[in-house]
Amino acid sequence: QSALTQPASVSGSPGQSITISCTGTSSDVGSYNLVSWYQQHPGKAPKLMIYEGSKRPSGVSNRFSGSKSGNTASLTISGLQAEDEADYYCCSYAGSSTPDVVFGGGTKLTVL
Amino acid sequence: QVQLQESGPGLVKPSETLSLTCAVSGYSISSGYYWGWIRQPPGKGLEWIGSIYHSGSTYYNPSLKSRVTISVDTSKNQFSLKLSSVTAADTAVYYCARDLTAAMVNDYWGQGTLVTVSS
């Protein structure tokens, strides 16, 4: 069982917007602004899409945005495109006395 | 362009030690950042194993800490993972990555290598 909770699947049509939630606790998501989001296509390494909750690495489309409210972080993808179909994982720093990083179980995004 | 490449045995026997190396090109490890290992069992999600700072400080997943050692060799521009007393549950694709903050801000990844634990 993953430390962070994500929906197993979400879907949307091209051009629509979708949001993937990532729910943790006051020991991880709620305590730190250190949530990252990764996109993973089948057989490929994960790709960093969002870090520190809402920052986009250079080269990542501005259709991807991140936010946080309390113990829940969210990834929103606007203007869905076929190439967005992938697995998405959230992770959060969770260290208090010792460093730790926890992941969500992943969300399969299907573009209809 | 920063590139990372994992190498090591694809098959390890139960109770033995898994050893992987990640060779880095396009960036000198001694220049900074953290360098980490992440794994993904077949068909499952990602798990952070740990990371090492360029100076040698290490950070491990508490659930694996008793079995994990991450080291760095700046002269060869590579870092390594050792996981002892492996079981079938350690079968996974193992990725190495550059971590900007030790909090899983991994901007460059290796392609991953499958390690199977079986007799």
How would you characterize this protein structure?
The complex is a heterodimer of chains A (112) and B (119). With 112 residues, chain A is mainly β. Chain A is 0% helix and 43% strand. Chain A has no helices and nine strands. In chain A, strands 1, 3, 4, 7, 8 and 9 form a six-stranded mixed sheet that branches. Chain A has a three-stranded antiparallel sheet with strand order 2-6-5, with no helix packed on it. Chain B is mainly β. Chain B has strands spanning 3-7, 11-12, 18-25, 34-40, 47-53, 58-60, 68-73, 78-83, 92-99, 106-109, 113-117. In chain B, strands 2, 4, 5, 6, 9, 10 and 11 form a seven-stranded mixed sheet that branches. Chain B has no helices and eleven strands. The termini of chain B are far apart.
Total count of helical runs of at least 4 residues of chain A? 0
* Beta strands of chain A, count: 9
Largest interface: A-B, 24 and 23 residues
Strand content of chain A: 35-45%
Q: Would you list the SSEs of chain B in sequence order as H and E?
A: EEEEEEEEEEE
The residue-averaged pLDDT of chain B reads 95
Coarse shape of chain A: globular
Low-confidence stretches of chain A: none
Structural category of chain B is mainly beta
Which terms would index this structure?
heterodimer, A: 112 residues, mainly beta, six-stranded mixed β-sheet, globular, B: 119 residues, seven-stranded mixed β-sheet, four-stranded antiparallel β-sheet, 11 strands, 51% strand
Summarize this, please?
The complex is a heterodimer of chains A (112) and B (119). With 112 residues, chain A is mainly beta.
Could you outline the blueprint of secondary structure elements for this entry?
The complex is a heterodimer of chains A (112) and B (119).
Chain A: E1 9-12, E2 18-23, E3 35-40, E4 47-50, E5 64-69, E6 72-77, E7 86-93, E8 101-103, E9 107-111
Parallel strand pairs in A: 1-9
Antiparallel strand pairs in A: 2-6, 3-4, 3-7, 5-6, 7-8, 7-9
Chain B: E1 3-7, E2 11-12, E3 18-25, E4 34-40, E5 47-53, E6 58-60, E7 68-73, E8 78-83, E9 92-99, E10 106-109, E11 113-117
Parallel strand pairs in B: 2-11
Antiparallel strand pairs in B: 1-3, 3-8, 4-5, 4-9, 5-6, 7-8, 9-10, 9-11
